[in-house]
Amino acid sequence: GARPPEDLRISKLLERIASMTDVVDLTAAGITDEDLKPILVAVSSNTSFHTLVLAQNIRITSCGGIEYLLGFIESLKPAFTLDLRGCETLGAPGGDCAACFEDELLEVFQEGGLDAMGVRILCDGTGMSAAAVVKLANDTPEAHIAAEEWASAVSATQEMSIAFNAHQSQLAAVWALELDADVEEKKGELTTSRIIGMMQELAA
User: How do the residues of the chain divide into helix, strand and coil, expressed in percent and rounded to 5?
Assistant: First the structure.
């Protein structure tokens, strides 16, 4: 069928992303190079996401990869997975920017230390070389250890956050009780002061 107007289509994609947790799955969503910018901004703004699936979006090209994906990949957090499998025009021989994209992606991945951070970029079924596919998949013991360490750190942070929020709630409850007691005490002082004043007036 005909593609819906671009603004409406992007809005619907962003709504889908907003409704997701942990994994953003946009498999075969008809995503183009120009769609990548708002999508990647939305994914980057939610730190709970640990996986972005853009598999089988055959309209994503190497030029879009250079313009949008490289910057996103540079800023990936540890243990993040980017799934580009089946994006067959990405890195396809003869396509514009093809060779540049693979070279620049490998450079970002290695020099940025993403391999040591446990980041994985799945590129099976793209136009990239077999060596690049293996390197970016990062299926190594070191990568798995990094991913496990990151998951443990996230879990510990969440537990600390829950404990902190519970402590803050307890403090707020205690403060409210003390405030109420202070108000009642001041009311009592006011009543006593008024009685004394009235007695002084009568005695005058």
Answer: 60, 5, 35
pLDDT by residue (tens digit) across 97-152?
A: 877 999 999 999 999 999 989 999 999 999 999 999 999 999 988 877 877 777 77
Closest CA to 129 of 105, 108, 113: 105
End-to-end CA gap in the chain: 97
> Which pLDDT tens digit goes with each residue over 62-106?
999 999 999 999 999 999 999 999 999 998 887 668 779 999 999
Q: Is 59 helix (H, G, I), strand (E, B) or coil?
A: strand
- Cβ(83)–Cβ(54) under 8 Å? yes
- Judge residue 182's burial from the number of C-beta atoms within 10 Å of its C-beta, 0-12 exposed, 13-18 middle, 19 or more buried: exposed
The dihedral region occupied by 139, where left means phi > 0, alpha psi between -120 and 50, and beta the remainder, is beta
